Amino acid sequence: MSRRGLIQGAGGVAFVGASLAALKLPFFATSGAQQDPAQCRATDSSASDRNLVVSNWPAYIDPKKKSTSTLQVFEDRTGISVSYTDDVNDNAEFYAKVKNQLASCQPINRDMIILTDWMAARMIGLGWIQPLDAAKVPNLHKNLIEPLRNRQWDPKLQYHAPWQSGLTGIAYNASKTQHVGSFEELITRSDLKGRITLLSEMRDTMGFMLKVVGANPSKFTSAQWGNAIDKLQGAVDAGQVRAFTGNEYIQDLAAGNIVACEAWSGDVIQAQFDNPDIKFVTPEEGLSLWSDNMMVPNLAQHQSNAEAWINYYYEPEVAAKLAAWVNYICPVEGARQEMEKIDPSLVDNQLIFPDEKTLSVAFDFMPLDDRQTVEYERDWSDVTGG
Fold it and tell me: I need a labelling partner for 317 at 20 to 30 A (CA). Which of 66, 202, 361, 368 fits?
């Protein structure tokens, strides 16, 4: 069964990465939460205990049903037994699950966790993540695609390795409406009134709103934030926005309940298999580029085994095999060439292997401090009713 088939069998909801990354309530570090990773680390038992405990998002790896699956090959090649759990359904929910232990330097009984950029940045900033041994992950430093390097919150790849990435842009149903070319159009065009949705993930939607008001989502001021949230409030008050959603928008788009929306690239690829009228657009404002990232939490007992996992998944052949199933952006240089042998139909798919032109207009969202997190989430909640 393909990933698409698995998702459809689960009721049509793709529980993947940023698709359920919506932060519902403000949260921030309490007194004493900050840790020093050097003082909060376990003795690495990898050499004598060939185990690895991984927490990831559901439907985010090729199924372990064949001897050729990426996970099975890793186990066979390394002798490491992987306890793989798809228990990350939401960044904020997972944070709530582990924050008390990590804040007090207690183990969470995991060697690797995979979280979206903004949460990765937060945990790294709190000192809850162990630095990676660069000598044990040479493929990461050699093969990570250029657009995912030099992130503001970990520019030297000391703490994170992208698992998969995606783009946020616009999708529309070509059988129901004309081409939608910009976010400005999406929130103002009269024929779209009440027939669009925006994402409930604040950083995705507000990144575009900041662009609409002429600000840079990677570096903006409080005044620019105010202009952007006011612009969104105006669209809501005018009845332009039907709803703020997770990735249930894709079913509404296919059914014609909405005709255009803010959308995640991987969701659109899946929808296009069944409905070629679903189109993905790079808005005039650009594209939001995000990643879900592998990290080793404090007190992990098998860090070297986790680093072996990272190094393995940064082999181009392995990365291509994974990308052929999950259909998100492959972060590994050389995987596109390997895809020729696996599924040639995906080689030129810009939503899996975007070219330099596509990525040249991509942007990310500025890391927020505690004060900004509380203030901006409150503003967001006031507008969206979240």
Answer: 361
Using a pLDDT cut of 70, give the percent of the chain over it.
Answer: 91
Q: What 3-state class would DSSP assign to 314?
A: coil
- DSSP string covering 47-62: TT--EEEEE--TT-S-
Q: How far apart are CA 204 and CA 289, in angstroms?
A: 9
On whether the CB atoms of residues 229 and 155 are closer than 8 A, the answer is: no
DSSP state of 13: -
- What's the whole-model pTM score? 0.81
Q: What whole-number distance in Å separates Cα of residue 13 and Cα of residue 144? A: 29
Cβ atoms of 52 and 83 closer than 8 Å: yes
The number of residues in the chain equals: 386
Q: E strand or H helix at 321, and its extent? A: helix 316-326
Is the distance from CB of 26 to CB of 376 less than 8 angstroms? no
pLDDT tens by residue, 263-322:
988 888 888 888 999 999 999 999 998 999 999 999 999 999 999 999 999 999 999 999
